[in-house]
């Protein structure tokens, strides 16, 4: 065995591209995701009625009809929730009360209003259509800059304003730097609302155990467990009375699954009310409209610049739109990057204003990159502009301002302690190995041919493992001094059972990042085993596993946190086993080596004992253990780096533990006619410290890059001026496919972290921060060559946006041509349907008039009307069932007739509310007498909000036409006294082909 | 064509991965719900329920189909194949699956079973696609984790070294 052991000794798994232990289960379709978790008999299924309005007062909710539907066990409203739970805690002291269901008001399209639980999901969804909610629609506040102005509608009246927090910070002497600058370069940047939208949505299984007053939850939550007390306080139970379990498999998270927590609370309450377990699975529309989004940000950024390209100060004004509520840990994106606001640059003077504003949009949250994409978009667009203004090569400006070589650890102006790196060298290597010179030649050649080609650069510092005190800076100094926060605890446990098998549990809650594999590598190395020998179980249970406030998977926490805890736990196990083995081998424990499943004396490898035997003795013969040693082999490693302190009195804070470095450059070409951007070449250099598994590390880069391409070119949650939500499907919220995402060239440098024991840093978020702005800079470069001003370049850079910059705004269509559909970039209101037409009725105008104004005959004319209530003079409320194309289900119609000119014309106005959302409309009817009857002509315009607007209102144009036509056909039938005329197959065919209306 | 009544659970039989299975479904029940909640397999994932993401892709009588756009009753009597059918009975991964593992073609794995089914059917028609052709085909699926690089490499490697195209040469 001696030779084997010696060979095995050299075998280390950390740092190797070890194939993933997760894959076999996933590839064979055997992984049990949250929707597959067993549920016990009698489990109820929840469906949620959501607000179709961006902003409205809830006047009344009638659930009686829904409660009587088949299979329905309970119908729960905001008032029910308010009676047995408390609002969620938020970071700021603001009167912004949010319960698990809307109370009094709805504040965004998708705001949960009523929850139905029934014996299956189909029945629960059916019942939603039978809930009558009466709203008083309020003006919505959508634009984040307008929201800050006086006199705007208030999202939360009790706050008295929409701005929830303003904080100013100053580091160094920015005023002096700006006064002494040769020039000041200024830019205003807009970063859109987007999300990486995991393919698996939220899933919650909740059961209330009344005997123990315990809520038991299984969900694909991803942490942080700082939200655990937020949930238990809302539920009015002690922390230990909320048991949160997460399964081993989760279909993507990217930060968004942090925001399951309001739904965890909702399903807990539903279970308590219904007295049975409740399961809820979010659908895609719910996810896009109401799960979470990265906050859109407007940044005004200025640089104090010397003529040689040196930047001596930055001044930021950051305005983040958090939507309708601040949900913990918001406003994280504004503060997580705080320490590193100077990016990769050696800039000593800094002034920052951070503003948090509320609007009638979905609440914002953590999304991969967590504040970094917004911040670097501003910084790197500005640095590009600095280069253009002073006529220098952007690479030269970058080099001139980088944190120089040999100064690490380096304290950045706002407090980040950059642990290690060599930024200039990383850039030189990327420029050479990635072939920047060749790319420049390619650009020049393309431009000679008249093509639109640009090169962009970006450099960023990528933080990892957040300091739990990072949000403290939002509080005034005296307030945070009373309750200082800092640190970031990680936990992992290694167990060796009586037969010597090794198992690992840890607090990382992964969603596909390969943590099981990396933990197996780490523990295998410590104990001289192979990764296949180590069983890692990452399903998690707050009732049984070691956890702390930092527990979870976010902010690139794994490599420098959980991985370290696991290596500590494995080291403890190793030390214990060595102490047990030492007397038998007659070697001091510190001298023993572990390899090939054995513990041995390296001087005489034949003097060895099997690891499983040594571990077994701690179970089978605990009496023989060394004096004072406890039985069994189970060790937990906990780790919190000392570098993560609370903010100091200068407001400096080391917001993260490790800081990696990324430098990207790319070449893009723009199609001159269409404005479409094609990425020709993309190079990304990463210094992420030690790579624990290069295969997995590269996978993180590819994944972050792909999403970043989406952010740069396609992805945005679009809202109308009235707050209607317009991107509710994957056909509207466009995400990149294999055809749009090129393969980037990845380069690595490895400067080990000096503060994380394994030397590893984060790698999974860097490209989310660097790539969108790198592509934007390349597009700017291409456009500037044509003399286009690119100051307003906003993401996503979709063709119409770019075409407008190249060709100017589109001119109005020539007379007679149909109006072009307005682009979502500047949406007017919700989706608008318009139409007109005429029909002939074989009866005199007076009779038609009477029919329209008579309650009973009107009821017969409205398609699908089964009940008509008179609300006042010529004012009706109708209960209708409709089945035209996608418009199906039960609706409440309100119809009012006015501007009556008997028997010539009338105006109809009203609304339609139902399962597809809400619509408001008006129309005119004109009656013209003709020889044998009356010519009835009409026009209408309808504005849609809610679901219909979100899922592509364009599908509804045909349905609206058909409904209006039905109305008039029935009018003809009613007036003529005959049945509704059957449509001939010929006219039906023509109509379906769209040839005839 | 049998008469179907709403609110009535009709018997639905399938040959699922070569084995006969039976369950009941109302006419409106989606095949994706039927496979997951009535039969109890775990590979038919739902990512959008509107036909865009491809996570629910299965083969119905050999044809690539979105289970979220198919009613269970439509598949009555059909042969349905899912990712569970790809490995052998001992769980030994197929060469295509091994290539995915080798090239890190998956992360969370939620999109993966559907993608494997599309690739399986596609390579029957086209055993040696170019990278562009392959990317074009894969664009019928969304993956939010991987950036597609690993899966593209995996399929090209498989076609080069193990697939029908490799043997034919
Ligand atoms: S779930 Fe069927 S295509 Fe997305
Ligand atoms: S691996 Fe997660 S969606 Fe593809």
Written description of the protein model:
The complex is a heterodimer of chains A (997) and B (169). Chain A is 28% helix and 28% strand. By secondary structure, chain A is α+β, with helices and mostly antiparallel strands. Chain A is globular and about 115 Å long. An eight-stranded mixed sheet of chain A has the order 3-5-1-12-9-10-11-22, sandwiched between helices. The model of chain A is unreliable at 816-827, 978-982 and 992-997 (pLDDT under 50). The termini of chain A are far apart. Chain A has four domains: 34-138 and 196-290, Aldehyde Oxidoreductase, domain 3; 158-194 and 293-468 and 645-803, Aldehyde Oxidoreductase, domain 4 (2-Layer Sandwich), CATH 3.30.365.10; 489-639, 2-Layer Sandwich (Aldehyde Oxidoreductase, domain 4); 833-992, START domain (Alpha-D-Glucose-1,6-Bisphosphate, Chain A, domain 4). The longest helix of chain A has 28 residues, at 558-585. In chain A, α20 packs across α21 (766-784). Chain B has two domains: 10-85, Ubiquitin-like (UB roll), CATH 3.10.20; 95-162, [2Fe-2S]-binding domain (DNA polymerase, domain 1). In chain B, α2 packs across α5 (149-161). In chain B, a hairpin with a 2-residue loop joins β1 (10-16) and β2. At the A-B interface, α2 and α20 of A face α2, α3, α4 and α5 of B. Bound molecules: FE2/S2 (inorganic) cluster (FES) (2 copies). One FE2/S2 (inorganic) cluster (FES) sits between chains B (106-112, 143-146) and A (199, 252, 512).
């Amino acid at each position: 065995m001696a030779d084997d052991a010696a060979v095995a000794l050299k075998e280390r798994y950390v740092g190797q591209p070890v194939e993933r232990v997760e894959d076999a289960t996933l590839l064979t379709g055997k992984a049990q995701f949250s929707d597959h978790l067993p549920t016990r008999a009698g489990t109820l299924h929840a469906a949620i009625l959501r607000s179709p309005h961006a902003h409205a007062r809830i006047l009344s909710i009638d659930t009686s009809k829904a409660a009587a539907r088949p299979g329905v066990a309970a119908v729960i409203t905001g008032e029910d929730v308010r009676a047995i739970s408390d609002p969620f805690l938020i970071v700021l002291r603001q009167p912004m009360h949010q319960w698990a269901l809307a109370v009094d008001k709805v504040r965004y399209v998708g705001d949960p209003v009523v929850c139905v639980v029934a014996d299956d999901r189909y029945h629960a969804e059916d019942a939603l259509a039978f809930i009558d909610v009466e709203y008083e629609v309020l003006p919505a506040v959508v634009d984040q800059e307008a929201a800050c102005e006086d006199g705007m509608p208030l999202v939360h009246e009790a706050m008295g304003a929409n701005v929830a927090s303003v904080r100013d910070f100053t580091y160094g002497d920015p005023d002096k730097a700006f006064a002494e600058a040769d020039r000041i370069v200024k830019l205003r940047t807009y970063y859109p609302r987007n999300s990486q939208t995991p393919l698996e949505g939220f899933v919650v299984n909740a059961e209330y155990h009344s005997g123990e007053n315990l809520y038991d939850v299984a969900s694909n939550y991803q942490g942080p467990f700082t939200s655990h007390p937020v949930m238990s306080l809302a539920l009015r139970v002690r922390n230990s009375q909320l048991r949160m379990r997460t399964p081993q498999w989760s279909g993507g998270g990217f930060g968004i699954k942090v925001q399951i927590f309001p739904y965890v609370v909702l399903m807990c309450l539903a279970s308590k009310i219904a007295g049975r377990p409740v399961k809820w699975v979010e659908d895609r529309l719910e996810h896009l409209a109401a799960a979470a989004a990265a906050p859109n940000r407007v940044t005004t950024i200025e640089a104090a610049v010397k003529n040689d390209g040196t930047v001596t100060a930055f001044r930021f004004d950051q305005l983040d739109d958090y939507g309708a509520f601040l949900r913990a840990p918001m406003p994280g994106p504004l503060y997580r990057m705080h320490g590193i606001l100077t990016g990769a640059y050696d800039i000593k003077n800094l002034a920052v204003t951070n503003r948090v504003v509320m609007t009638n949009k979905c609440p914002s949250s953590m999304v991969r990159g967590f504040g970094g994409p917004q911040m670097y978009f501003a910084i790197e667009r500005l640095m590009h502009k600095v280069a253009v203004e002073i006529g220098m090569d952007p690479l030269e400006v970058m080099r001139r301002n980088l944190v120089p070589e040999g100064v690490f650890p380096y304290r950045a102006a706002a407090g980040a302690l950059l642990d290690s790196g060599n930024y200039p060298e990383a850039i030189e290597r990327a420029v050479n190995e990635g072939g920047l010179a060749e790319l420049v030649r390619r650009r020049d050649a393309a431009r000679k041919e008249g093509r639109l080609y640009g090169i962009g650069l970006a450099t960023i510092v990528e933080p990892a493992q957040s300091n739990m005190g990072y949000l403290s800076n939002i509080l005034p100094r005296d307030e945070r001094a009373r309750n200082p926060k800092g640190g970031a605890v990680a936990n992992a446990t290694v167990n060796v059972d009586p037969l010597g098998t090794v198992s690992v549990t840890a607090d990382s809650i992964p969603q596909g990042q390969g943590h099981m594999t990396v933990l197996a590598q780490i523990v295998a190395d410590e104990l001289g085993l192979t990764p296949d020998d180590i069983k890692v179980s990452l399903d998690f249970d707050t009732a049984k596993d070691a956890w702390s406030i930092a527990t979870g998977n976010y902010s690139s926490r794994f490599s420098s946190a959980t991985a370290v805890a696991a290596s500590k736990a494995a080291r403890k196990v190793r030390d214990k086993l060595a102490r047990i083995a030492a007397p038998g081998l007659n070697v001091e424990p510190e001298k023993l080596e572990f390899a090939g499943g054995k513990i041995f004396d390296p001087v005489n490898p034949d003097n060895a004992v099997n690891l499983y035997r040594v571990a077994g003795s701690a179970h089978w013969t605990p009496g023989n253990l060394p004096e004072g040693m406890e039985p069994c082999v189970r060790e937990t490693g906990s780790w919190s780096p000392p570098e993560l302190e609370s903010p100091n009195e200068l407001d400096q804070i080391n917001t993260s533990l490790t800081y990696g470095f990324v430098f990207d450059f790319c070449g893009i070409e723009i199609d001159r006619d269409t404005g479409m951007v094609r990425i020709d070449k993309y190079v990304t250099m990463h210094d992420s410290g030690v790579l624990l598994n290069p295969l997995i590390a590269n996978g993180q880069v590819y994944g972050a890059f792909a999403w970043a391409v989406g952010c740069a070119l396609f992805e945005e949650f679009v809202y109308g001026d009235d707050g209607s939500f317009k991107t509710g499907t994957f056909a509207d919220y466009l995400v990149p496919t294999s055809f749009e995402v090129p393969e980037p060239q990845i380069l690595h440098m490895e400067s080990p972290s000096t503060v994380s024991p394994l030397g590893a840093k984060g790698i999974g978020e860097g490209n989310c921060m660097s790539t969108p702005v790198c592509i934007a800079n390349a597009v700017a470069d291409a456009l500037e060559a044509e003399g286009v001003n690119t100051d307003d370049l906003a993401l996503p850079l979709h063709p119409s946006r770019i075409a407008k910059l190249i060709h100017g705004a589109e001119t109005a269509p020539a007379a007679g041509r149909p109006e072009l559909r307005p682009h979502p970039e500047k949406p007017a209101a919700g989706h608008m349907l318009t139409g007109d037409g005429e029909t002939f009725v074989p009866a005199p105008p007076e009779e038609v008039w009477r029919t329209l104004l008579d309650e009973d005959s009107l009821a017969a004319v409205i398609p699908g009307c089964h009940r008509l209530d008179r609300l006042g003079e010529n004012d009706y409320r109708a209960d209708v069932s409709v089945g035209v194309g996608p418009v199906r289900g039960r609706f409440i119609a309100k119809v009012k007739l006015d501007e009556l000119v008997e028997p010539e014309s009338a105006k109809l106005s009203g609304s339609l509310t139902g399962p597809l959302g809400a619509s408001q409309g008006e129309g005119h009817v004109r009656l013209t007498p003709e020889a044998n009857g009356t010519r009835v002509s009409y026009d209408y315009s309808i504005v849609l909000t809610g679901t219909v607007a979100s899922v592509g209102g364009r599908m509804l144009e045909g349905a609206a036409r058909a409904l209006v036509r039905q109305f008039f056909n029935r009018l003809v039938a009613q007036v003529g006294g005959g049945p509704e005329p059957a449509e001939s197959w010929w006219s039906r065919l023509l109509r379906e082909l769209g040839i005839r209306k | 064509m049998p008469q179907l009544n709403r609110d009535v659970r009709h018997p639905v039989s399938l040959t699922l991965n070569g084995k006969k299975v039976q369950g009941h479904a109302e006419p409106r029940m989606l095949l994706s719900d039927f496979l997951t909640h009535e039969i109890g397999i775990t590979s038919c994932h739902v990512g959008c329920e509107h036909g865009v993401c491809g996570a629910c892709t299965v083969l119905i009588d050999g044809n690539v189909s979105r289970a979220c756009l198919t009613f269970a009753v439509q598949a009555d009597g059909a042969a349905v194949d899912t990712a569970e059918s790809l490995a052998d009975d001992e769980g030994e991964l197929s060469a295509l699956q091994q290539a995915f593992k080798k090239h890190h073609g998956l992360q969370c794995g939620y999109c993966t079973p559907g993608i494997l089914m599309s690739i399986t059917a596609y390579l029957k028609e086209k055993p040696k696609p170019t990278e562009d052709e392959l990317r074009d085909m894969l664009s019928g699926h969304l993956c939010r984790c991987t950036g597609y690089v690993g899966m593209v490499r995996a399929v090209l490697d498989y076609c080069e070294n193990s697939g029908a195209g490799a043997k034919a040469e």
